[in-house]
Amino acid sequence: SNNTGEKKVSSPGGAISPPSAITMTPPKQQKSLADVSGKLFSPDRSIDETLPVSSVHIPTSPLAAASPGTKKKKLERLDWRLPKEESMSDWTIFVKVSENVGSKDISTDVEDTYHVHKIVLSCGARQSDFFSQKLSDGCGFCRVELNPSAARAFPIMLDFIYNAASDLNATSETSVALRYLSQIFGVPELKKKATSFIKKDFRTSTAPCYFTEAHIFNEVKLRAAACNLCAASFDEIKSTDMLSLQPSLFVDVVSNPHFQARSNDFCIKVADVLRANPGSANAELLCAVTANEKMPIINASESLFFIHLGLEHFLPMRSDPNEDL
């Protein structure tokens, strides 16, 4: 050192270098969370400007965070089918499934969860009046209870609401349920589309399915039309299509004034329906479907099946079980 207080630095060769020749490199500063999040979203200014830092998912792996080629996947549109951490969902719908047995609703432990977006459900041509009202309550979730058929169609309704340019992805099995959902959740456009689909899809082969679904949702006119078509075209309907009918609905078809059937085929279809619904047969049902004017002849291949049913349901009713049949 000298009298001026300046510090001399020795080079490896022993010579003294003046302070001006020394270049000091400042320590590299670690990037803050805000720096990292801003860099991740800088290609898309709309996301960068609207997302708070707290909502940004930063990779926990130091290697992933430090990799210069790592980019966060761009969210092109809001989609309820994406995992919650990717969809940026801000609301949740819980759908509990309940089975209607007789006049009682029996709830099950099945509950489906849907992570959705408030802006989609409450805005646009396909908005839901029901959910718009629920959103105004300020709660972060909503619980609804639906029968199994309506619960199966619920995701299709969400797809319809989310994709304003798409058509309705309905089927014979879901279209009646979708019309029901359109009414309880207030989506008028969904009702129009579902009704249009039913009119185009309603025919002999789909009549049993529409009869069942119309019965579930109390669609009186559709139920009557489907029952009439099932009765008038009974021989044209395959046994596999008839299996969608509950035995009680099958009796409604057989009792319909438009009913026409060849006795041999009728016998086989009755047996198929009863086998598909074990335990559903009773004396009243058997009397209705095996009446002489309906089934004057029993097919040989089904004779033992009907004898067994007769012994099971009619023999206990006889005053003298030992009396000859």
TrEMBL record:
Pfam families the UniProt entry points to: BTB (PF00651)
Biased composition (Low complexity): 10-22
Disordered, as annotated region: 1-40
SUPFAM superfamilies, sorted: POZ domain
Organism domain of life: Eukaryota
Location of the BTB domain: 89-170
The name this protein goes by in its record: BTB domain-containing protein
Organism encoding this protein: Leptocylindrus danicus
